[in-house]
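User: two proteins, same treatment. go.

Assistant:
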Amino acid sequence: MSEIQSMMLSVCFGATVGYLIGNLVGIIIFAVGEIQEKRRKRQKDEDTSIKTE
């Protein structure tokens, strides 16, 4: 394998791994945001039901 082929392989592999890691981080951040939103909504509903009683 020539020097240029090795460099091209490294660049492509690095880009693929970076894309995969970026997607995983995005999925985790989105999931945490959804959990926080559900918790906030549930807390608001509980506060509203306590005030109406």
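Protein 2:
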Amino acid sequence: MGNNPFSAPSIEDAKLYASWGLDISYMVNWCITPEQYKELTGKDYTAPTTDTTTA
């Protein structure tokens, strides 16, 4: 984020947060790609579902 608190996080921020064990999935398609997510976490990115059907 650099010195500007209003700037978007960068790939460097994502690397730092991932190293701390934080969930960085919210950053995918905003400041990192699904491929970068997998590189940083070792997990495939799964987009959240918006299925609202009920059984």
